[in-house]
Known about the structure:
It is built from 15 helices and 16 strands. By secondary structure, it is an alpha/beta fold. Helix 2 runs parallel beside helix 3 (98-108), helix 3 (98-108) packs parallel to helix 4 (129-146) and helix 7 (215-229) crosses helix 13.
Amino acid sequence: MKILHALTYYHPHLSGLTIYVERLAETLAARGHEVTVVASRHLPELPRTERRRGVRVVRAPVLWRLHKGVVSPAFSAEAWRLLQSHDLLNLHLPLLEAGVLALLARRVARRPVVLTYHCDLQLPPGPASRPIEAAMTLMHRLAGQQANRVVTYTRDYAEHSPFVSRYLPKVETVYPPVIVGTPDAAAAALLRARLAPNGERVVGFAGRVATEKGIEYLLAALPMLQASVGPVRVAFAGPYEGVVGERYYEQLGPLIERHRDQLTFLGELHGPDLANFYAAIDCLVLPSVNSTESFGLVQVESMLCGTPVVASALPGVRQPVAVTGMGELAPIADAPGLAAALTAVLAHRDRYLRPRAEIAARFDLAATAAFYERLYGDVRCEMGAAPLSRPGAAPGPPAYSGIRGR
């Protein structure tokens, strides 16, 4: 099958959406499909085209940045050109061009369209934010009307999302693709000694320092948490300065300075370094505050490395803790509630531990890839195409035929 994925940012940009598409595309390519990703050339030094781990990547030039997005008139033209030689289009939203591309694919090229809806778009306050959100809403609704299927991570999020809930009859859900290595015990111990030189408890945060993450509530919770469990350090893994479309780190400046001695910013971590980070901390926290966060892949990564999680009780975000029991849920935007949930996990950590195999079986990458293969085959057949086999594909589990996730 020839599959075209379209999204705004691709590698080396770091976000849950980008990581999702990268893992899915590479896994499908390894299973014998011809996979192309079209994205923006968000950094001028990136190659115009390249082949990365079996996936062809085509980047459209960018004229300028607009808030968290980019303006790239060439993007739609590039995607339309590529669509002519592909069997279907998988759009990854939020995506400004989604409506136009879905309409062209269905009504002109006669190709099936799958939308993967990663999250609602809620921009920080600003004069341009509301017009951008209005334009995105219009384009997303046009894409939703044309799409054969809409995919989300969990039914929980689908039913609460203002966008996805409009299209529930054609919604299917599947857990996102999760990949994380096995931590190296010695390396994790060395990192632990660096993060907590005096034996403090260590709470970790993984991801971009961005407005929706609710880090101000974590910092406000620190005095209450320390009163309950003793000295605590917080370690941040992920980009924090110069995050696209954000001034959040600068806005947090006074709070960061107040707790500077308790905070460590490690920057982006990948591969073994990220696995060792999860193993070095006592608990991962995801204190997100709005539906720009729809799941939080880092929760599952942390669990696979043996570390429990405290997450906000947001739709979708609450699911990894709810289905595994490997952590606690905290009230949204509530520092005392967050401190209480962290206290419960840190004070009784062993109660929340689960075997890695149990977590891996529930969040299985091969099952996610098989879900998409089945879905792609279904929508192609609905459009009148003959079923396709997967020549040269590695054996995998049968395609999933129902809903994964809650």
